[in-house]
Structures are given as C-alpha cells and as structure tokens.
Design brief:
globular; six-stranded antiparallel β-sheet; 27% strand; 31% helix; D-amino Acid Aminotransferase, Chain A, domain 2; binds pyridoxal-5'-phosphate; D-amino Acid Aminotransferase, Chain A, domain 1; alpha+beta
Length: 303
C-alpha cells in the first residue's frame, strides 16, 4: 500500500489535523530509525473515551521510562482525541455518532535527529494520533471462545513500557497467525507472562489469577478494571506467578485488551481448556465489563 492508497481517516500530526495519506514524517525520526517512541490505544464507546485517565497515566509512565518529555497535558490529549473522534463519526455517515465505537491511537517519538543511539536531549517529540472503527471480537468468538498457541517469551525484559519497538510482539503474534490461531500465549522460563497483544488470566476453583505487575508484562488498563469487577461480582482474585502446567490445567483461560475487553480462550495448542466452553467467571467478568462501560458513559466529562 502506498501513501496515496491509505484510507482518508482523520489523524493528527504535530499540531495539524489531517488525513492518513497526507501525514508525513522525516526519515530521520527516531521512531522510524530506532522504534524510539511510545503509544497508547484507547477504546471509545460512542464519544466516551473509556478509562482515559488510566491510559494517560500509563502514557506518562512509558514516556518517563524513556526520558521523552510529554508534549501535552491530559486536557490537550483529550482535545486531540475528541476532535479526531468527532471527525471520524461525521465522515462515517452514521445516523447516530454516539453509536460509533472507535479506537484512538496516540504515539509520541523522541523526535528527529541524525542517527545516534544515545537519548539525545532537547529534541522536539513527534506527536501522531489517529482513530478508526473499533474492531471487536465476533459473536462466534464470544460464544465459542478463541484458540491460542503457546511460545517462549523471546521479547525484551522491559515489556512494561508500551513502546513502539514491537518486533517481539509482531513475531509472537505471527506464530498464532501461521497456526491459524487467534493469539500467542507467552511463557518466560516456564512462567506465564502475557500474550502477543493481550494480558492472560486463568481461573482455577473459581479464583481469577493473573501474573504479577512487573517489568515482564505490559500492565493492561484492564488489570485494575478486572480487580474492580471482581470486587463487585464477588470473584476472588490474586496476582502471582503462574506456571505453564497451571495454565494448561486451568478451568478457564481469558485474554484481556482494549479491543478484546475480556475474551474466553477455549483451545490452547489444540487441546480444550476446561470443558472447552466459555466459563462462568468469564460470563460474570464480561457482564461486569459491560456495566462499567455504561457507567463510564453516564459519568463522562463533557468533550
Ligand atoms: C503486550 C500487551 N499486553 C497487554 C495488552 C493489554 O493492554 P490494554 O488492556 O491496556 O489494552 C496489550 C494491548 O495491546 C499488549 O500489546
């Protein structure tokens, strides 16, 4: 696909609102040369950015880790996202823009400089943002669950940074594509870390278990959200190291991410998980998730 063939989706680049085929950055941008940047993907239901403050907090943490100054306040980021969402909803021709669910993508790179590995100070960060229709799991995936494969976690040891350097994630995801599966569940030294682009949870004896918040996983915004839902739904929950054997013997396995929300995994490496059907804890978490989305729309700040 060339520049000109890109869909004319609304985007933002360094202060300008434009469309994808018109947005261009320097070949010396450190995002292009080194993958030296961070990003966020924020789900928006109707025009309500879901868990916006939490996504901002993670963006701030990722930028701080890489010593890239945050070019915008939270209010400015909100304004950029809101303008893009409004443009998208208008272009979509949907009768009710409130019904258009979108994924807002924000990216900051260190900026443009001659090639030099060191974190050159004083550069002007490159800011890019775009939005697109949210691609949600299908009804069949929700009803039957999805298939995953497993692989060694060969990614780097700073998975907690939401970095645009995603080659490890790209290669991990391709393992499942090649196998005709939906995601790749990763194990580091035999311990569950996460999946190529999602967090992984297991259920055993009615308890939801997830890997600890540490540098080996990207702490999804759904970590805290699932903790809240578990409290409301009365589901016991713990974060601790989880062995490969525990994953394979789990009653239920779930994925979570902005787009997947929570999604049941019913096959791993060709074997059934539990009874091979989405389980009760999944049903409760999914219901709690939908309630949280509705509550967020009630409480949302004005755009
Ligand atoms: C590696 C990885 N882990 C976990 C997640 C889930 O994060 P979130 O729930 O914030 O979407 C993602 C999301 O894209 C991811 O890429």
């Amino acid at each position: 696909m060339s520049y000109a063939d890109l869909p004319r989706l609304p985007c933002y680049l360094n202060g300008d609102y434009t469309v994808l085929p018109e947005a261009k950055v320097s070949v010396m941008d450190r995002g292009f040369i080194f993958g030296d940047g961070v990003y966020e993907v924020i789900p928006a239901y109707g025009s309500c950015l879901f868990r916006f403050e939490q996504h901002m907090a993670r963006l701030e943490r990722s930028l701080a880790e890489l010593r890239i100054p945050n070019p915008h306040t939270r209010a400015q980021w909100h304004e950029i996202a809101a303008r893009l969402m409004a443009a998208y909803a208008k272009d979509s021709g949907a009768p009710d823009p409130e019904k258009v669910d979108q994924m807002v993508y924000l990216q900051v790179t260190r900026g443009v400089a001659l090639r030099e590995h060191a974190m050159l100070p004083g550069l002007t960060p490159t800011v890019f943002a775009m939005t697109n229709l949210m691609k949600q799991p299908t009804t069949a995936q929700r009803a039957q669950g999805v298939a995953c494969v497993t692989a060694d976690d060969f990614r780097w040891q700073k998975a907690h940074i939401k970095s645009t350097s995603l080659l490890g994630g790209v290669m991990a995801r391709q393992i499942s594509v090649d196998a005709g599966a939906d995601e790749t569940i990763l194990f580091r030294d035999g311990w569950l870390s996460e999946a190529a682009a999602s967090n992984v949870w297991i259920v055993k004896g009615g308890v939801l278990l997830g890997p600890p918040r540490d540098h080996l996983v990207l702490e999804g915004i759904r970590y805290a959200l699932l903790e809240e839902i578990c409290q409301v739904q009365g589901i016991p929950m713990a974060l601790r190291r989880i062995s490969r054997a525990e994953v394979l013997a789990a009653d239920e396995v779930l994925l979570s991410s902005s787009t997947k929300e929570v999604l049941p995994v019913t096959r791993i490496d060709g074997e059934a998980v539990g009874d091979g059907q989405p389980g009760t804890v999944y049903d409760l978490l999914y219901a709690g998730y939908q309630a949280a989305k509705l509550q967020a729309r009630l409480r949302r700040p004005p755009l």
